[in-house]
Amino acid sequence: MVRGFAQGAGAGGRVRLRTLSNLRWLAIAGQSAALFLVYFALGYSLPILYCAIAIAVSAALNVALAIRYAPAHRLTNREATFYLAFDVLQLAALLFLTGGIANPFALMFLAPVVIAATTLNLGNVLILAGIAFASVSLIAVAHRPLPWPQGEALLLPQLYQAGIWTALVIGIGFTSVYAWRIASESARMSAGLAATQLALSREHRLAALGALATAAAHELGTPLGTIAVVARELERSLPQNSPDMDDVRLLREQAERCRAIIARLANPEAALLGATARLPLGAFLDDVAAAHRGEDLEIRVTVLAPPGDGAVPQVWRAPELLHGLGNIIENAADFARSLVAVNAGWDAQFLYISVADDGPGFAPEIFEALGEPYITSRPGHHALGESEIGPQGSLDEHEGMGLGFFIAKILLEQTGGLVNAENPPGGGAQVSIRWARGVIDGPQPPAQTET
Description:
Number of strands: 9
Shape: elongated
Helix content: 55-70%
Largest sheet: 5 strands, mixed
Strand content: 5-15%
Order of helices and strands: EHHEHHHHHHEHEEHEEHHEE
CATH superfamily of the largest domain: Histidine kinase-like ATPase, C-terminal domain
Strand order of the largest sheet: 4-6-7-9-8
Number of domains: 3
Mean pLDDT: 78
Radius of gyration: 34 Å
């Protein structure tokens, strides 16, 4: 099952121990410099011993972790949450000793929460945000005086302190949710693109197999021809009653059979193995749709030629086209009641293909986000895919988790197609693709564009 950011409590996560340790060392250096400046340079009174103990505990944790783990050790969600929670509580202890939320450094509460939001799953982010909220609230009502010149005291109005508390709470909540949302979308998009590359590489391997077969056919044609000629000469030279005649005749027949097989492999148009094979538009769509036809489902392919134009476009069997259109037809077949209509046409400027089904249509809650990774209305999966972000299973599992349309859209756009999805007035769902003439039916295969 595809999981979210977390890989489980017992597996390595996305955060390296070295990263958190370096950030903690940076915090220790900043806290030490601030205490030195305030106490020794400015001469303000503060509980320097207790503050030094709080900083020393943080440094001791870093040293202990450096001894216990390798620098490249990846922390689980639980471990990372624990260490970030320690940083929040250590900062709360320092602020308790130095003025509470009146201390300008109270803003640093945002740092651990934002780090968690960009690396951990939502549950752990909420736990850490809750700890930060509780810490801010506690030091807002109970804290030591803010360090100030001897004989003076800074007394902030209660309303102003309430405003600081509100700003900190809102800041922690907003930045954590916003950072988590952005990181989640970025991770989902990266995972979706990785799965797209997996799908495309599979199609390219199939295409390479066809090219290899063609090359092998050319290479083996000459030696097999020589074998056939030698076998034929031996057959002519042997007497009819020779005990070796049957073996020589069998050798010649098998050599000719091998040559016939290789001749078929050498013709991509006939073998339909190569990425450079071309088919008429209708035959191309029949080829793509054949794998998805069933006894209780009709996939009807209709090609409408414009008036006065009898030249049917010859479409390249590019891997991007095969897999992209195949995914769209498969998705329509999954939701159709009894019919999937594949319609195609062309004019002087564009070539059109549309895939429509008589199913329930695209669900309203996913329609606006259609084409993004992990967006699905299949039973058993989240409509918005918030918890599925990483490709860990097979390709079929990925496409069942809401990647099928995303992969199809990316691949078809790589061939220069413009993809549009809609729920037509008559019911069902329809996906339309449009190419400029000559892109997929030109003299050269469609060139990929960068995504």
